[in-house]
Design brief:
With 90 residues, the chain is mainly α. The protein contains three helices and no strands. It is globular. The termini are far apart.
């Protein structure tokens, strides 16, 4: 895939993950959404390697890698949301 394809893939995966995860993500703009989608694709690829024993890399668009990228981006958004919550003092 070319760089433009990676950017579009990241934008779509990040946007779909933002729609699926609970809570607000006010600080993420377009660039942040692309970054979350691209990092989510890496996380999803690792999940695919470990859990699904999928050791080959595909350089074309298909539903499986896209769903793994959305899953990875959603995991990243939930983790970022948990880290950005203000800590309570007891």
């Amino acid at each position: 895939m070319g760089i433009v394809s990676w950017l579009v893939f990241g934008l779509l995966a990040g946007a779909l993950a933002r729609l699926l995860t609970p809570g607000r993500h006010p600080r993420l703009g377009c660039i942040g959404t692309i970054a979350v989608g691209m990092v989510g694709a890496v996380i999803g690829g690792l999940i695919g390697d470990v859990v699904l024993d999928n050791h080959h890399v595909r350089f074309h668009w298909s539903l499986g890698p896209f769903l793994l990228a959305v899953l990875g981006a959603a995991i990243l958004l939930v983790a970022l949301g948990a880290l950005s919550q203000p800590r309570r003092r007891f």
